Amino acid sequence: MHPIDHIGIAVNDLEASIKMYQETFGYEVDEREILEKSGVELVFLKAPNTLLELLRPLNDQSPIAKFLAKRGQGIHHICFRVPDIEAELKKLADQGVELIDKTPRPGAYNSKIAFIHPSSTDGTLIELCQREV
User: What is the Cα–Cα distance from 78 to 68, expressed in whole angstroms?
Assistant: First the structure.
């Protein structure tokens, strides 16, 4: 069983969303990064038992921009933390799970990440991450 690392939320206005979560729930910014290759600016907010990841597209070709255009603001994905992402991806592929990423790519916090296609997870986009300790 893998713990939830974070919940990703697509937003149009990062500053307004940060302010809302701070004022409404008392969450504080933990990390802020720009991932040029993924076309996203992200902010992690500390929640009591997990992190919230607010995602803002950097351009119209970003997967987050496409998500916002199609579905609007809201939950984009759930991320599970795994100890060995390569082994986890191999296990899932061997089970016939459809993977978006067959090999890990760089993620926030100097992590390795990979996504599982929603068709294999009852319509929910799942991210796996392995954090460097």
Answer: 17
One CATH from 3.40.630.30, 3.40.50.720, 3.10.180.10, 3.40.30.10 for 4-130: 3.10.180.10
Q: Are 14 and 64 in contact (CB under 8 A)?
A: no
Q: What is the pLDDT along the chain (133 residues), one digit of tens a residue?
A: 899 999 999 999 999 999 999 999 999 999 999 999 999 999 999 988 899 999 999 999 999 999 999 999 999 999 999 999 999 999 999 999 999 999 999 998 889 999 999 999 999 999 999 998 6
The pTM score is 0.93
Instruction: Tell me what percent of the chain is helix, strand and coil, each rounded to the nearest 5.
Output: 30, 40, 30
The first and second tokens of residue 126, run together, are 């799942």
Break the chain into its structural domains and give their ranges: 4-130
User: Which spans in 1-133 are helix H?
Assistant: 14-25, 63-71, 85-94
Query: How does DSSP classify residue 58?
Result: S
Q: How many residues does the chain have?
A: 133
Residue 110 has a CB neighbour count (10 Å cut-off) of 9
